[in-house]
What we know:
Elements: E1 9-12, H1 13-19, H2 26-34, E2 38-41, H3 45-58, H4 65-76, E3 80-84, H5 87-94, E4 100-104
Parallel strand pairs: 1-2, 3-4
Helix pairs in contact: 3-4, 4-5
Amino acid sequence: xxxVSGGPGDWPSAVLVxxxxxGGTDQPIDLVLARGFARVVTTGIRIARxxxxxxxxxxxxxxxxxxxxxxxxxxxxxxxxxLTHDPGDLSAxxxxxxxxxxxxx
Length: 105
């Protein structure tokens, strides 16, 4: 997720669960983090509550939990651009938040 400031992107810690897979694939992720291109944002109660409310609003269960945490993090940080290869679920979760934009890559 990127904010308008042009600074490092913010990665909710839950996203790391989806990208760390071992077998040599972790090193590039660690390099991005170590070089300051991304900042890991931990999930606290406020972000968790927002994510839970988003899931309830779209009528979803925990299968979209990580997507909801990504959108909730953007909301908590005041908005941003979320880049994804699968924008459908994220767009539905972010629908009521004009400061959160979803972009397809």
